[in-house]
Design brief:
This protein is an alpha+beta fold. It folds into 2 domains: 3-117 and 190-580, MFS general substrate transporter like domains (Growth Hormone, Chain: A), CATH 1.20.1250.20; 120-187, no CATH class. The chain has 18 helices and 12 strands. It has helices at 3-23, 28-58, 63-79, 81-92, 94-112, 191-221, 230-258, 261-281, 295-298, 308-326, 330-355, 358-381, 387-395, 413-435, 442-463, 475-503, 509-532, 546-580, and strands spanning 120-125, 128-135, 142-147, 150-152, 154-156, 162-164, 176-177, 183-187, 301-303, 306-307, 538-539, 542-543. The strands form 4 sheets. A 5-stranded antiparallel beta sheet has the order 4-3-2-1-8, with no helix packed on it. A 3-stranded antiparallel beta sheet has the order 5-6-7, with no helix packed on it. The two termini are 45 Å apart.
Length: 586
């Protein structure tokens, strides 16, 4: 057990007590949703923290391919809630949609545990082939080139030439291979395992689509209008999300990178199964919230003996095949995002023009403005799973006091760990300020969130000056960056979830919540382009030029950090005008 795991246990034990005490003053249904979402996030973040390494180190995708694949997956994860929210609003009801989505997630995470044989990298030089051999895992992972039954370390010089270290003069290839004189190729394992991986991702995407928008919507339904406990309830619910994410990053991150990918992914699946059980057993505590709008119509046969409810389930399973095709094509995901945005925003424009009062219309306009600002925030924040995750692996000192070390995926626990520490305090702070009419407006909170995510990236830029001889930045700078990203998240995410339920008209609350996740989908897609700016050349998953990689990370992080701060300042200036659109909603 390393220091991160010991500290993790302490954080969970210390923070759970005040959270559970606060839960007692909230509706009983919050307890059920808290634990169901906790386990769902355990499964999602347990898998997400490993995915970029699974793609680059097991299947040997290059950086741009892996980052594009990651962006396609995460974009669809947040795009499908558009469909799930509409289906719940019109047919299934939120509770049934959540239960069905959870079962798909169990199947998807279980399939991720089927990993198969890893791909191998081969160097082709003058008709001869030389294999790169991988030893160890995580921080101990080492790649060497096998030449004449001996293995040699390698790297790149400033000109980008491949240098083989310690190679004797009698070797069949030279110690320095200039660019263009050799070719690198990947020998993949049986294709079925890559297909299974894409099927698993597709099941997860469809499952999240049915589950994610609806569970947050039920949280909002638990509270009467203008209930002062609402924001605190969403923050406590957000604590549950991050409790699952925190434990998953530590446990699944260790198992996946040090024991085997199957172990980390498999444990994530077990966590999702636990979430489904909690939700099903807790139905009575929801007190009828989230039930189908027209139960009689839902039970009516529409295709032989198949009723509407089971037809939706059947179409959901068949839709996994379409997602399987899309998740492998990042460009197609972009077209789908654009089409989905036009349709849903067109529907909302029609609804606001024909069905809303002037006050309702004004509030929904503010909701859409906040959603737009969230796209910028999440585009940068969600670098955590891709470029920041790789930065932790390649250019961060992961050694810990006592001679142990953490895995790169365990660094994902910083964000959720800080939320566990800060969420109860923020919940109390918003309630304290609200009682005194001192609570900052939602637009101001969003502007401060943008500033903080920008500061986080600039902290990493400052840390580059303290990099060691292996071009690795001290861990404290990554931890501080995640701390500022986390405080920014607490200014924006739980507040944003609450504002969506308060600002939207009752008839489209799940649809507005789905648009909130559509913004996250755009952020994931755009985040793939940002991550691509940090891409560097690798061989068998190992960076050839760590110095060049660090310099590139520094340049990209500085640019996006300054842009985030600038946009945050602009929104702060506009916040007094934006606040008027709320018409008294706090």
């Amino acid at each position: 057990m390393n220091l991160v795991e010991i500290v993790g246990i302490i954080i969970v034990l210390v923070t759970c007590i005040p959270v559970f005490l606060q839960l007692r003053s909230h509706p009983r249904g919050l307890f059920v949703l808290f634990f169901a979402e906790m386990w769902e996030r355990f499964s999602y973040y347990g898998m997400r923290g490993l995915l970029i390494f699974y793609l680059t180190q097991h299947f040997l995708f290059d950086d741009k391919e892996a980052q594009g694949q990651y962006a396609a997956y995460t974009s669809l994860v947040y795009l499908l809630p558009l469909i799930g929210g509409l289906i719940a609003d019109r047919f299934l009801g939120m509770r049934k949609a959540i239960a069905f989505g959870a079962l798909l997630l169990v199947a998807g995470h279980g399939a991720m545990a089927i990993e198969g044989a890893p791909a191998t990298q081969v160097l082709n030089y003058q008709g001869a082939k030389y294999e790169f051999v991988v030893h160890g895992r995580a921080a101990d992972r080492e790649v060497k080139l096998k030449v004449a039954d001996a293995e040699y370390a390698f790297g790149a010089n400033e000109a980008g030439d491949l240098q083989i270290k310690g190679l004797p003069a009698t070797a069949p290839i030279p110690a320095t291979l200039t660019k263009g004189s050799y070719e690198l190729s990947v020998v993949k394992g049986p294709k079925i395992y890559q297909d299974i991986m894409f099927l698993a991702l597709s099941l997860i995407i469809m499952g999240v689509g049915f589950l994610k928008p609806n569970i947050s919507s039920i949280v909002g339904q638990l509270y009467p209008e203008n209930d002062p406990r609402r924001d605190a309830g969403f923050t406590l619910y957000y604590y549950g999300i991050n409790l699952g994410a925190f434990v998953a990053a530590i446990v699944c991150g260790r198992l996946g990178q040090e024991i085997g990918w199957w172990a980390g992914f498999g444990l994530a699946g077990i966590g999702m199964a636990a979430g489904w059980v909690v939700f099903m057993l807790g139905k009575p505590m929801l007190e009828g919230k989230g039930e189908p709008p027209e139960p009689v119509k839902l039970a009516k046969p529409v295709l032989g003996p198949i009723n509407t409810e089971w037809l939706i389930y059947l179409l959901g399973v068949l839709g996994v095949g379409l997602v399987w095709l899309l998740v492998q094509k990042n460009a197609s995901v972009g077209y789908m995002l654009g089409a989905g945005s036009v349709i849903i925003l067109g529907y909302l424009a029609w609804f606001m023009a024909t069905k809303c009062t002037p006050v309702e219309r004004s509030r929904m306009i503010l909701a859409l403005v906040l959603i737009g600002a969230s796209v910028v925030f999440w585009t940068l924040f969600e670098q955590a799973g891709s470029s920041l995750n790789q930065f932790a692996d390649r250019n961060t000192q992961l050694a810990l006091p006592g001679g142990s070390s953490m895995t790169a995926s365990q660094a994902q626990s910083f964000n959720s760990g800080f939320i566990l520490l800060f969420a109860p305090a923020f919940a109390a702070l918003w309630a304290f300020l609200g009682r005194r009419n001192l609570d900052p407006s939602s637009p101001m909170k969003f502007s401060l969130a943008l500033v903080q995510v920008g500061i986080g990236f600039l902290i990493l830029v400052a840390g580059v000056k303290f990099a060691d001889g292996a071009y690795k930045v001290p861990l404290i700078f990554l931890a501080l960056a995640y701390m500022f990203h986390t405080t920014g998240e607490l200014f924006l995410s739980p507040v944003g979830l609450s504002q969506m339920t308060k600002l939207s008209a009752p008839a489209v609350v799940s649809t507005i919540m789905a648009v909130w996740f559509l913004a996250s989908s755009w952020a994931q897609y755009l985040g793939g382009f940002v991550a691509n700016l940090t891409a560097t050349e690798t061989v068998a998953g190992q960076v050839l030029d760590p110095k060049g990689a660090l310099a590139n990370y520094s340049a990209v992080f500085q640019t996006i950090g300054l842009w985030a701060i600038g946009l945050g300042i602009v929104m702060a200036i506009a916040s007094p005008w934006l606040k008027k659109l709320a018409h008294g909603v706090k």
